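Comment thread on ticket #2218

A.B. wrote:
> Attaching the input chain for the structure job we discussed in standup.
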Amino acid sequence: MPSLTRTEAAERAALLTVRATDVALDLTTGDTEFHSVATIRFSAPAGSSTFVDIKPATLRSATLNGRDLDLASFVDERLPLTDLAAENELVVAADMLYSHEGEGLHRFVDPADGRVYLYGHSFMDAAPRWFACFDQPDLKSPYTFTVKAPEGWTVLGNQAATLEADGLWHLAETKPLSTYFVTLIAGPYHAVRSEHDGIPLGLYCRQSLAEFLDADAEELFTVTRQAFDEFHRLFDVRYPFGKYDQIFCPEFNAGAMENPGCVTFRDQMIFRGAVTDSERGMRAMVVAHEMAHMWFGDLVTMTWWDDLWLNESFADYLGHRVTADATRFTESWTSFAVKDKTFGYAADQRPSTHPISGEVPDAASGLLNFDAISYAKGASVLRQLVARIGDEALLAGLNTHFARHAYGNAELKDFLAALSESSGRDLTDWAALWLTEANVNTLHPEITVADGVITAAAIRQTAADTHPVLRPHTLDVGLYGEGAEVVRVEIDGALTELPQLVGRPAPKVVLLNDGDLTYAKVRFDARSLAALPEVLPRLSSLNRAMVWGALFQAVRDGGLAATAYTDVVAGAVAAETEVTTLTELVRIARAHVVDVYCTPAERPAVLAKLAGAYRSMLADAEPGSGRALAVFRGLIDATVDVPQLRGWLDGQGVPAGLTVDVERAWQIRLRLAVLGALSGAELDVAAAADPSAHGQASADMCRSARPTPEAKAGAWEALMTDGGLSNYTVWSLAEGFWQPEQHELTAPYVERFFAELPAAGKLRSFQVLERLANLLYPRFAVSAETMRLTADLLAGDDLAPPVRRAVVDRSDDLRRALEARG
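C.D. wrote:
> Ran it. Output below, let me know if you need it in another format.
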């Protein structure tokens, strides 16, 4: 099917007003297909023509105003509609395929107990996989559903569902929704229910996870209630979609999806083992993020995908803000700084970078922009906007925006008009520089000191040669010596003098962007860099997170050696008190620095140094604390001590207060598999003992990670030739395949990746393919030959868009690693 273009969408939107959509589904017709009948009532200019979108297994019939349509005209998953009346009724009946890729109506058989679960995911070109529709964001419609389901199933949707008789469910009419928000949940789901402020609340998961959901239900409900109260305090419009169900779905592609009244999450957010407060805080943020979408995206929806930021940037900003302000997870902005924003900077410097708001020619191109730029960079720019115009003006503008466009669509110009009115400032130039220009600026302090006093101070701003745009910044400058002082400044252009700093006592550290108010990479002058180890423990958790992010960016930019970075981590990890930061430090040090930027000769010693630092910290950590758990995980991934790993797996020598639960056991098995110390028979026994979906995915990853020719050949054959694999099986096999310890074994597959990827890509759907290409790119084969093979692949014209994007991005990371290694 050709992806819908912006021109086509505008033409169709100019013709049609969709009055209502009724969908009847029969889910009792078999294991591979279901029956779908969509009745769409819409108005159009008499005599005009358009098309409806549908991706059927078999198109059974279609009538327009009682007239049978010629099914032979159905081409490229579009059914032409000609000679329209002023008011029309279209009825399209089809047999549809269940999905195993997380798009359309996904069918999952739980390996733990054989129960079947369905969930609908309509996002971005997926709605026509389960019902006929006009699939674009600005053709909203009220929806009603009638669903025939097997006995004993629960059916949920965007509005309340009622079981009438003989397994027939009726779902009440929704408010006007874009197609990509429409969902359906069906199966023997376990439920926990509550209520808050007149809003019915529900939590759902498959039966095999019931005990874990029950254990976390009160925390999830508490976060949900607190978030609702905060959003109702911030916004004039109360939650507008009735009930609020949150469903934890198996084999879910994204982190979550903001379907009004029926939010879906990946069910890894139901924790089966011990986790840190950092992970609970991240889950709370996702709950708040999806709730923010009820206003940003659901109530007011972007007209086209170039204004995706009106959904995701705001949801990310408000998700962190509300989590920090209204829940016990007060360090949410710290998590954002050390994790989300770090990778926002990375994405913004790759060849695939794009403006926050820019031209999107078709829906498929829009899907590529659901990345760290639209999320983390967009949220960061909103923080900068608040610093510039103030919180009161922001909230007033948002409430005006909601009032003007409720249940409709809006564009960037509409939002800016509301903000300009509330702030009394013309934001046109600001928006042009921040929203429509790509890449990131770097801020450099230029401080002169004499006799213990600052005698001259300035901030120099630089830009990438490929994107030579300088931006205005409102930020704080932190001066840290015997005490601490923060000065608010506004800068613009290449060099901004800071006379307000002159005459102050010379600090040990000058920290640009103190409090992380703007979006820019920051550098340190030589004096500050030397004093960082001394001053770092005295900084706030947010500022420490920002400093760690800046050091990682310096590694990526070639300004700090990987060994120097890991030396700092090893020396400072014991002093880091914030679990969120510690968790990310441990993860980034191994996965993004040691495995990529260290040479094969350097890597063993660096890993040993990190493992030693983690062992020392564990010896001193409070038993069972979140800090101990975060470092224990890091030690598992860093150690090469097979006897100790085996002892932990058997419950021997485990750090005090910690346990090797089912999730930690799989982490240990994966490390043993990588080191060649886990047999196939042992893995089979472990997989049989944990028949859950999580267990099977972990076993797949371990199988792919084992350093034997047979294991690699089997995983590769499955990935390259088996189009029937589920999304999670594909990703697990791909994630386990490349290991830095197995360079010689996997070397023959480097060339095969580039030769076989174009054909293999045709086996997968868009969303599955993008992640597969990212995971399977030979990122540890850091060599000029890999770069040459990459260039040859990109020179061809047979790559699907998500594959091309992934290869371009991964190759840029590889280029940086190659340059850093010298």
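A.B. wrote:
> Thanks. Noting for the ticket: The mean pLDDT is 95.
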